[in-house]
Here is the input.
Amino acid sequence: MFSIELEREDDQRWIAEVADLPGVLAYGQTKEEAIAHAKALALRVLADRIEHGESVPESISFVAA
Here is the structure.
């Protein structure tokens, strides 16, 4: 399970970060948009790891913290 950490920036945008996947962070105008962008980016990172023969978790799920 990947935890998505949320913060509100000074400009009122939301930033969502998947701490277990370095570099996976995304902005959104709403909390839901930021979470959706972070999930999409995380899945792209995991797909890239699979393509390069790296290990990934057998089961993938997300929880917003």
